[in-house]
Amino acid sequence: MPFSPVVILDPERLKIAAQTLCDVFGIPCLHPHQEETGQNILRGISTFLDVPTGGGKTIAFWYALFYHWQPGNTCQKIILVVGPQVGLLEAQAKTLNAKGIPAAAITSNSEDIEELLLVADTLLVRTYRVGLVGPEMALSTRFHEKVLKNDLFMKHLITLVIDEAHCICEWGGDDFRPDYRKIVELASRLPSGTPILVATATAPRDVIRDILRYLDLPADIAQVQVSNAKLNVSLSVHILQREPESYADLITLYPDEFEKPEDFLQTLIYVNDRQEAEKMQDFLRDNKPEGIDAKIFEFYHKDIAEERKTAIQNGLNDATKRAVPTTDALGLVSP
């Protein structure tokens, strides 16, 4: 049962797919790389998607699905996503379901894996449009028996998405998650011609070459790449002039003319531990000019309350927060 690509793309359905994606995810329009990737998949063209963090990589995953399916209709098309982190897979499923896209994450944390796998034709086709699994689950005997041998699942599968594909090189060795480099076995079990969407963020050429080799994909596979240049972001390096524990060098962040919050360039200050972040916030607040609201400076780390995390993230988005000393917890926030 080979994969059946869309031979002639319907312009009206493409337009509806793009508009519905925008409506569902609350974005003004799709980027060209998202549309190109989705249309490649519809045509049955395997694609390597290399987009910087925050570039809307995952939106491209769903474009082909929305060509066939709209929220509320009975289309049974499905996408299978393989990713490295259980927490991320579960978060993606939660986000998709909240937006009306039925999704199931089948992970080691699933309360009843056997029930999810037992009736694959019901749960993974008639109910869900997206299935998310880790490499170990995807290559397990029970997943093969309950899902991959299910004719209905195979008939309606649109694409296999391999997310965070750089992990195939970074992990996948004999000592740590060896199944990651065996994902090619999963691809070989799918209907012939099923397009594979390989996705990562800003991978160098040697890593791309290794990923394609491990997946047994041709070197001339279609590649959709976006530069990681961000003209509104800069990185500056300063040699400390005072003792690090004093945080006195943070004074250099203050502008010469600091009369309103907007005068302070919006800044993320990454530190190694929570106490550093908290002490930096205190220093910035203690040394601000009179009349400037101290709350424009606020620390962030994994142990603060979820409500506060959301408030700080919103403050960064609307520019009311001007400097945030933070651990890498802020770097794990989904764009």
UniProtKB/TrEMBL annotation:
Its EC number is 5.6.2.4. SMART domains: DEXDc (SM00487). Keywords: DNA-binding, Hydrolase, Isomerase. GO terms for molecular function: 3'-5' DNA helicase activity; ATP binding; DNA binding; four-way junction helicase activity; hydrolase activity. One of its GO terms (biological process) is double-strand break repair via homologous recombination. One of its GO terms (cellular component) is chromosome. It comes from the Eukaryota. Pfam families: DEAD (PF00270). Residues 38-221 form the Helicase ATP-binding domain. It catalyses: Couples ATP hydrolysis with the unwinding of duplex DNA by translocating in the 3'-5' direction. Belongs to the helicase family. RecQ subfamily. This is DNA 3'-5' helicase.
